[in-house]
Amino acid sequence: MMIQALRRSLLLAVTAAFCAVTPMRPATAATNAEVDAAIKKAKAYIYSQQKGDNWELVAAMPPADKRPQYRVEGWQWGGVTGTAIYGLLASGESTQDPKIKASLEWLKKADIHGHYAAAMRAQAWPFIKDEREAAQASRADFKIFLNGLIGDKKPMGERGSPFGFYGYYTDEKGKIQPNWYDRSVSQLCVLGMWACEQAGQEIPSEYWRVVDAAWKGAQRPDGGWNYQDNREGGSTGTMTAAGIATLFITQDFILQADGSQWSTCRGGQRNPWIDKGLDWMDKNAPKLLQSAPHYHYQLYGIERIGVASGRKYFGTTDWYKVGADKLVEMQNKDGSWGKDDAGHNPKKIPDTVFSILFLVRGRAPVIMNKLEYTSVPDPASKIPAMPDPWNQRPRDAANFAHWSGKQIEQYLNWQVVNLKVPAHELHDAPILYIAGSLPLKFKEDEIKKLREFVEGGGLILGNADCANANFTKSFIDLGGELFPKYEFRELPKTHPIYTEEQFRPTKWKVQPKVMGLTNGVRELMVLIPDADIARFWQTRSEKTKNECYELMQNIFLYSIDKSGLYSRDSSYIVLKDGKIKPEKSMEVARVIVGDNPNPEPGAWRRMSAIMHNQAKLDLKLETVKLGEGKLGPQKVAHLTGTAKFTLNEKQRAELKSYVEKGGTLLIDAAGGSNDFATAAETELAAMFGGEVGSFGTILPPDHPVYTPGNSKIAQFTYRAFVRGKVAGSLNAPRIRAHVIQGRPAVLYSREDLTAGMIGNEVDGIIGYSPATATQIVKQVLTYVAYKGGGAPVAATSADTKAPAAPAAKPRPRSPTPRPRPSRRRRSRRFVSQLRGFG
């Protein structure tokens, strides 16, 4: 019951997060809320068409002599039910739901022979959690696809040869349909065989080689594919997408079978057939995304290759954005898409499912962006250049994203990005992944973008392919160039990556070395110098090299604090809207004291954009070094840091004079730093009296500071890392105030606000949730700007991510540590936190 309750609360929080974030696209684009509503209506339509335990036009498969050649009530009987179940499961419905469970049992017993029908039924089996049950259920479809592959006297790959393709059916005696093949049913059969592999079937490697050669041989000179060589017509969007998607699948299995080639680093691996196909899509996608004879089926194909290739754009077209906009616009009133033919071909359910799959998978969270960069040879080093040094393991990120998604029962995407785009566009994912075996060398403008990405909350991950020492050195040097104040060190065994996430290093046969560069709040960069984990992602060695997967899963979960995922095209990033005209301005001083006074430069940049957009208040930020007499005209001064510090008498006098003359001083320990907090409390006691550690009084939730004008903070929440580390309630604010003549002149928080203002979820921070931290600072600024009166713009959640879940009250700390939950229980906990994004 507790797990179910937590899951429900997290699903509500995630839905709110999708609706709350500021989308980084035009106002006319479909919002996440609209997409959510469209998916919900579509699922309701599918359920409305269910007939007991199935969706078929007729109750049973007709006799052989009365079957139309490929109609769904004949040879493709069972396919509508398989399609409907696939759409529902892919959109998050449970295999344990009574309606779904009954239909799955119906599918297991259905006497299916049609290849379309078997292909759609096969998509359901990977959703079954019991491995034995999934393998048993998929066995019949595996045999259909293995026996149904056409062999022919014509040489494979010869124009017009059906060898390596599929017809519409295999009859009861295992006889293949004579004299017919096409690439539409062939694509779906390959997808069906892939689903069987995921459900536990062992597919002969020769199968993938035959299919691979057949599709390569059928590619047209323009890079596309057509429906069938024996019919008129050129390359089409549906068949070109089918060809590219098929070659991505066959490539993965063929490359996996030849694992020895990945032990050396020779540069990027290219597939000329896939490249030509993607070039065709670059030229034609803008038109294909607008309309097509089989539009919904075509969108399904485009989504598959967009996700498989890690591409956000075809040409300059954001394929998901355009497709989602069109689908939201053209959805039927009953929740379906498409239009049925006269009786024999019910297209509404397939078209509705294809549309659901596009929306669900296309907007799935992006786990990492893989950086595309060029090799710049250094003649002095005698290290030669190589092609595509960033892509020596072309399927590393794709394979890890697939494995990670299975761990948390949720679709996850990956992308390829470059540094030609603005820094904020890199925030589609929490991690920017840089791999290679050559020294890195970036231009000045690229360095600036990398720095902006990290300061905006991102994490840069480096993997030294082939454990190359030159790459490792250059990555460390890159860290020094980006953040000269900080240095790399090996992560301590007490780091949250090892102690707070899903997997424990004590279970690993080998513990890969991990180096990190921190600002004292969070890791800015992480480097795997010698384990070459990407090699084992490429070869899908999750069983023999589980530590390479589990370590990366821990890094991923650390970067999102286990629950801070965003759907594609959404982000916590807030950009200043130039169309909004400010009504007021206010000066804010960033007070510089101690060795690390500004660990998160991106915090106030984001806060400035929020105040501009939401309160029409422009902040004029100024860095003020305390003791130089420059503190005074600013209405608000912010003091933060992570290190110990001591003020001299002149600095204390300046701060005290500032607040006594009407200034508001906001102090917080960045990251929840104990060193900074202890120093701050000592200095506050010296300036304003009282005992160290008990400064001022805690402001109640309804204090005017939190409720300026008509606005208020609906709920105060904290990061998960806080639990068990602080005493007292975690459902209320803990900020202490020093009051002068009824005015809270000094506001002090031992719990982090600074990192929270960035907006990203990251583990290891003792502080308020990003949503609450952002709202607190926003309310303080609004209160000061309007002197506690007036009616400023009401605080909303539109500028922040909604809280992940209400924080539980801490239990009294036991003198002996509580035993950790078992791996099985921990796994369920992480699943409950992370599922539901589709």
TrEMBL record:
Q: Where is this region: Disordered?
A: 795-838
Concerning Pfam families, the annotation shows: DUF4159
Question: Biased composition, Basic residues: where in the chain?
Answer: 820-829
Source domain of life: Bacteria
Signal sequence span per UniProt?
1-29
Q: Which SUPFAM superfamilies match?
A: Terpenoid cyclases/Protein prenyltransferases
Q: Which InterPro entries match?
A: DUF4159, Terpenoid_cyclase/PrenylTrfase
Question: What region holds the DUF4159 domain?
Answer: 389-559, 601-761
Record key words, sorted: Signal
Comp. bias (Low complexity): 795-808
Give the protein's recorded name: DUF4159 domain-containing protein
